[in-house]
Amino acid sequence: MEFKEAVKIALQSLWANKLRSVLTLLGVVIGVASVIAVVTLVNGANTYVATKFSSYGADVFTVSKMPQFITSAEDYERFQRRKDILFPDYQYIVDNCHRCRGIGAQQATVGKIVRGTESVTDSSIRGYTWQMPSLQNLNIMQGRGFTEADEEHASHVAIIGTDIQDHLFQGIDPIGQDLRVDGGVYTVIGISEKQGSTFGASQDNWVAVPLTTYQKSYGTSKTLTIYIKAGEAGPRLEAAADEVRVLVRSRRHDAPNAPDSFELDTNSTLVGFFGTITAIFGSVAGGLALIALVVGGIVIMNIMLVSVTERTREIGIRKALGAKPNDILMQFLIESATMALVGGAIGVMGGIIVAQIITLVAGFPSTVEVWSVFLGLVMATCTGIFFGVYPARKAAMLDPIVALRAD
């Protein structure tokens, strides 16, 4: 039998028994859709995180009390026992780091922004040194950023995100206008470029004020994060990071052989950690998808056995007309592979649709990779071939005389 004819028979069988076909292919569809959705979401998350962290600059690293990602309660408690990183520590690095090309610090809390009768809650209130916007690549699209004078005099000025502009200054130019940040009055001097959302959470609901002003309102005892620009990635970054590590260790009196009592993170460290987390998530989800494919394959094998029973007389006629066992074997293998491939194609489309729905509803980033589409189709086809071998072999081994007697 020609390949084209075998494929045609398989498609006719699927169309003739629509309900049975849907139930047969359901496992393959779910399995492939799961693979495509997971790969699409994981790739989207990795790409997004890599882009976001790299936007800080490949030559920027941070010094903080605690890492940005903590995986256990025990680690959290251990990190909490560390000494806070305070403004004098930041100033010490500023005064003594010779390889640093830019140094900034920030603190943050959550508060309420009010203007007139309008308000925005759960906003990020940030205390920035004057270099911080450039270290975080925050582009000021209107107005200006902070200056050394703003920091030195603890000026009551603010830079706002676009969410604050949209909610509190509709139809009004915010520059020069006043707003209240947790009760304190600040004059808007700049508006940041829109940052978008991360995993459904807006990155534009924030107000930044000079760090010295921030500490007058919220106190100086809370830990801060220090951002340091090396000027260039590679050896220069490593040299600057080593110098800062020595300075901070000496400042905090860490013993020579003791581990660091602080975290020094580069963008590659953070991206690599996130990549590890998404890889674990992908492995677990991939395992569940594999189980769905196995279940789908078993259902295909069962239906193919039923098909062999239903078409026993047809098999006998083909053999009587000269068909060889290999011809019968290939016919049923092609049919089972075609069935699985159809299910795989539906699963690919379903997985992409599911990923896009999650992106629209939850804001979780997704990126469709061409290789994942081919992977889903290949997995489905291989599942159909693997689980179709036994029914195909059973059909090929039928005795033509016995087959012709079948009703």
From TrEMBL:
Membrane-spanning parts: 21-42, 270-303, 340-364, 370-390
Does the keyword Transmembrane feature in the UniProt annotation? yes
Q: What is its main location?
A: membrane
InterPro entries named among the record's database cross-references: ABC3_permease_C, MacB_PCD, Macrolide_Exporter_MacB
Which terms in the GO cellular component ontology are assigned?
plasma membrane
What's one Pfam family the UniProt record gives for this protein? MacB_PCD
Any single GO molecular-function term of the entry would be: transmembrane transporter activity
* UniProt domain MacB-like periplasmic core: residue ranges: 21-244
Kindly list the places in or outside the cell where this protein is found, as annotated in its UniProt entry.
Cell membrane
The UniProt keyword set, sorted, is:
Cell membrane, Membrane, Transmembrane, Transmembrane helix
Q: Which domain of life is it from?
A: Bacteria
Q: Which residues form the ABC3 transporter permease C-terminal domain?
A: 288-397
The similarity annotation says: Belongs to the ABC-4 integral membrane protein family.
Protein's name according to its UniProt entry: Putative ABC transport system permease protein
Query: What species is given as this protein's source?
Result: Granulicella aggregans
